[in-house]
Write a structure and sequence with these properties.
The complex is a heterodimer.
Chain A lengths: L1 H19 L3 H19 L3 H26 L2 H4 L3 H6 L5 H31 L7 H27 L8 H24 L6 H27 L2
Helix pairs in contact in A: 1-6, 2-3, 2-6, 3-6, 3-7, 3-8, 6-7, 6-9, 7-8, 7-9, 8-9
Chain B lengths: L6 H8 L10 E12 L2 E12 L3 E5 L6 H8 L7 E6 L2 E2 L4 H5 L2 E4 L11 H12 L6 H7 L15 H15 L3 E5 L7 H16 L3 E5 L11 E6 L2 E7 L12 H10 L4 E2 L6
Parallel strand pairs in B: 3-8, 3-9, 6-7, 7-8
Antiparallel strand pairs in B: 1-2, 1-4, 4-5, 9-10, 10-11
The chains are: A mainly alpha, B alpha/beta.
Chain lengths: 223, 269
């Protein structure tokens, strides 16, 4: 039941975003601008660019995703749709999981495009373990989406200003960011040692963040 | 729908028998107060609505009609006071209440980037309804030709129609309508009236907040709110059960000059 409802909510959110392009149309130019700025700031030294690229990619992706998190609730805020979700007798956790799944797909699109840009601009090698790279991306994006869906709700409810969203999310996203950057840096350097450890850290944070979101979402949503 | 209405018994209550027993109360509020920033939007409201009854909430702007409906819908919690809706506690059993209540407020709660049919299908997914009901609901509100058009292209009146289609499709035990006639043309107003008539026929309970008097015979009684308090609960008493209904506006005038109508003391059913 929870999975069916979560799927219905995620499918609705993705359909709305596919038509409105409200979130990605703002996040993508922002991430692109950041990557270009980083590139110019670091200069033409290829080695430095390659070494910094994993960090720049995740940092640009996260900062661009902050806007995406609040925009993911825009359709709910317009026309009182959030109240419609509140008044439906569905599992609040299912709403959270559905919203998080939709945000994760959008963030994945954002990271895919910015990742391609990073490879093209900075010459970031993808390494020889595409499966581990994909696992790093999935776990990292899941953690960010878990956080963003929870705190994005607060801005939609008007309990916090959109400007305060980074203050809430960035401290909690830091462990996810560090683990994802380290795993990516190791993989792009061709090393798989210690990657499992960083993936474990990511998986543990994802589990904690998703469980916390599942449990507290209903309390945040209620009057 | 899990709950079966008992229209016959409800009609008997409307005919003037003593106040509702607990099992007959669709809405029962006791001294409910809701504060916003320390100021009461509704204050010590006590109200009983019997299953199958249609009650018109009237009052000036800011009198607390919308807040009262939102408290009954469980969109807002009462700051003070207690109450039950369809036999369930207003605070502790919100999900049970929500499964049986449809609230149509000032906002239509529609996704602008989804089509009319997609919006209704999403409602079906949330409430576990059969999506095959969607075409019928669209046809009932005259929107069948634009079912595949995004709601963002709809006028306010069309959005209101779609919200009415959603309410009709849900067929909830308790219908809460907040200014349902606002912004509607003559045809669309007839849809609201049809919804009220259908609710009466099926023994559903309706709380209707409106500045405008509903059409003749659509409501059983009126409750007036002013400054967040119930000031004029009016119940038709000692009238033959089959007597033709009179327009509510006229009935309210009679409360002033006609002793056959008796104000019910606040707090009593």
């Amino acid at each position: 039941m929870t999975a069916r409802l979560a799927w219905a909510i995620a499918a609705k959110d993705l359909r709305v975003e596919r038509r409105s392009k409200a979130a990605l149309s703002a996040a993508l130019p922002f991430a692109t601008t950041m990557l270009l700025s980083f590139g110019f700031a670091l200069g033409p030294g290829r080695l430095l660019l390659v070494q910094a690229a994993p960090g720049l990619l995740w940092l640009a992706g996260l900062l661009a995703a902050l806007d995406l998190f609040s925009r993911s609730y825009q359709a709910e805020a317009d026309g009182g749709c959030l109240e419609g979700l509140l008044l439906s007798p569905v599992d609040r956790g299912a709403i959270y999981l559905g919203k998080a799944a939709a945000v994760a797909v959008q963030v994945a699109v954002l990271f895919t495009l910015t990742g391609a840009l990073t490879v093209a601009l900075f010459g970031l090698p993808l390494g020889s373990s595409p499966a581990l790279l994909a696992a790093t991306a999935v776990l990292g994006i899941t953690g960010l989406a878990a956080l963003g869906s929870l705190f994005g709700l607060l801005t939609a409810l008007g309990r916090t200003r959109q400007a305060a969203l980074p203050l809430l999310i960035l401290p909690l996203a830091t462990p996810v960011l560090i683990a994802a950057i380290r795993a990516c840096a190791l993989l792009s350097a061709g090393s798989t040692d210690q990657v499992a450890g960083w993936l474990g850290v990511l998986a543990a944070f994802d589990a904690v963040l998703l469980a916390t979101g599942y449990l507290v979402y209903g309390h945040l949503l209620e009057d | 729908m899990a709950h079966q209405p008992e229209p016959a018994r409800s009609r008997a209550h409307r005919a003037g028998t003593p106040g509702p027993e607990p099992s007959d109360a669709a809405v029962s509020l006791r001294d409910v107060t809701r504060l916003f920033d320390g100021l009461p939007a509704i204050s010590a409201v006590s109200l009983d609505v019997v299953v199958g009854e249609t009650v018109w909430l009237r009052g000036p702007n800011g009198s607390g009609k919308s807040t009262l409906l939102r408290v009954v819908a469980t969109a807002l919690s009462p700051t003070f006071g207690t109450g039950t809706v369809l036999g369930d506690d207003l605070v502790r059993a919100r999900d049970r209440i929500r499964a049986r209540v449809e609230y149509l407020g000032h906002q239509t709660r529609l996704y602008a980037d989804l089509t009319a049919a997609e919006n209704l299908r999403f409602t079906c997914a949330l409430y576990g309804l059969d999506p095959r009901a969607v075409p019928g609901a669209l046809a009932m509100t005259g929107l069948d030709a634009v079912g595949d058009v995004r709601v963002g292209a709809f006028s306010q009146g069309m959005r209101q129609r779609l919200a009415l289609a959603r309410a009709a499709m849900r067929d909830a035990d308790l219908l809460l309508l907040d200014e349902p006639y606002a912004g509607l043309d003559v045809d669309a107003r007839a849809i609201v009236d049809d919804l009220l008539t259908r609710a009466r026929t099926l023994g559903r309970t309706v709380l209707l907040a409106s500045h405008e008097a509903p059409a003749d015979g659509l409501v059983d009684r009126a409750v007036e709110l002013d400054a967040g308090r119930v000031v004029l609960p009016v119940r038709e008493r000692n009238r033959p059960r089959r007597a033709p209904r009179e327009p509510v506006r006229e009935a309210l005038r009679e409360t002033v000059r006609e002793p056959a109508w008796e104000p019910v003391p606040e707090g009593l059913p």
